[in-house]
Write a structure and sequence with these properties.
The chain is of the alpha+beta class and about 350 residues long. It folds into two domains: about 110 residues, Creatinase/prolidase N-terminal domain (Creatine Amidinohydrolase, Chain A, domain 1), CATH 3.40.350; about 230 residues, Alpha-Beta Complex (Creatine Amidinohydrolase). A hairpin with a 5-residue loop joins strand 2 and strand 3. Helix 2 crosses helix 3 and helix 7 packs antiparallel against helix 8. The longest helix has 23 residues. The chain is elongated, with a radius of gyration of 23 Å. The N and C termini lie far apart (about 55 Å).
């Protein structure tokens, strides 16, 4: 904060708060806010009825419960009265930010991402171990998908999604974040919502799933074909595998994040599928499924030890099929390592 000339950081709902304090605020209309000043002990303002949920940590922060008859923004504004620059968390509700701007005229507002984001991007060994454990759990499910142990033909996408979700929970995740199941032409929509479409023989089924396990996220995508693999699908998937492997290998310390995207994109474009790769190559992952950094053109931050992110190029042919291959990667002093070890080949099931 001192390096960036920020006097106060205000964090409400979202993952910055539990990252720093261990406490996850309920997304209520009642204000919860951590006020961290460049000097002094941070204050955690919480509704009194929520105070029993907070594990107090004297010396780390001071708990300030507020009563229903009190306007908590007045308390926060009073605490911040000497601040000229305040950084606020991205997920803070607009009602609270607007209220504070009215109470603190003349303050320069910044994003707390400029402070906390830099910390959260560099994962510790403990965090990497948590990500690895979550990755291994979904690897097992991907293996079941590829072996045919998860029935597909004759079931709806929604039924298979529910099956994947239960398997995620059964393997130690506390929460399912998503379980995309997209069959045939639906796989050409990268974020397809699984519905009542019945999976048929002879089509691509794209499965992208993950959850939260002990505070850290998993995320993996694997594709299978329900029958013989068509030649056009096989050709595109070969390109995709090459691009994904190159993207993983490109994440060397000191390389701009956007270069990881450029490497995968060039291989896909050179093979004639450039217009069908419609999203960024990857996103950071940790306590959130999507967090900084991003492997996309324009993100010029350089890869550093501890960065954790996805590498997930895709090829999507509208009206026909879609393919995506995704691993979670961690940058180390010795180069990038993939946390996911499920087979990368396209399986016929």
């Amino acid at each position: 904060m001192r390096e960036k000339h920020i006097d106060t950081v205000l964090l409400s709902v979202g993952h910055d708060l539990p990252y720093l304090t261990g406490y996850t605020a309920m997304p209520l209309e009642r204000l919860t806010m951590l006020a961290v000043h460049s000097t002094g002990v941070p204050l955690l303002f919480v509704p009194r009825l929520e105070a029993p949920r907070v594990q107090e940590m004297p010396g780390l922060f001071e708990l300030v419960p507020w009563d229903e008859t009190v306007e908590p923004l007045d308390l926060v504004a009073q605490d911040c009265s000497g601040s000229s620059t305040i950084a606020v968390g991205d997920q803070t509700w607009a009602r609270f930010i607007v209220g504070l701007t009215h109470r603190l005229p003349g303050v320069r507002w910044e994003r707390a991402l400029e402070v906390v984001g830099d910390l959260r991007m560099r994962k510790s060994e403990i965090e990497i171990a948590a990500l690895r454990a979550a990755a291994r759990a979904v690897d097992e499910i991907a293996g079941e998908l590829q072996s045919g142990a998860i029935p597909l033909i004759g079931r709806t996408e929604a039924e298979v999604s529910a099956d994947l979700s239960q398997r995620i929970l059964d393997r130690g995740h506390q929460k399912v974040n998503f379980a995309i199941v997209a069959a045939g032409e639906n796989a050409a929509s990268p974020h397809h919502h699984p519905g009542n479409r019945i999976i048929q023989p002879g089509e691509v089924v794209l499965c992208d799933f993950g959850g939260t396990m002990n505070g850290y996220c998993s995320d993996i995508t694997r594709c299978v074909v329900t029958g013989d693999i068509p030649s056009d699908v096989a050709a595109a998937y070969g390109v995709l595998m090459e691009a994904q492997a190159a993207g993983v290998a490109a994440g060397i310390n000191g390389v701009p994040c956007e270069e990881v995207d450029a490497v995968t994109r060039q291989i896909i474009a050179d093979a004639g599928y450039g217009e069908y790769f419609v999203h960024r190559t990857g996103h950071g992952i940790g306590m959130e499924e999507h967090e900084d950094p991003y492997m996309v053109s324009g993100d010029r931050r350089v890869v550093e030890t501890g960065f954790a992110y996805s590498v997930e190029p895709g090829i999507y042919i509208p009206g026909k099929w879609g393919l995506r291959l995704e691993d979670i990667v961690v940058a180390t002093d010795d180069g990038p390592i993939s946390l996911n070890e499920a087979d990368h080949n396209l399986h016929a099931v």
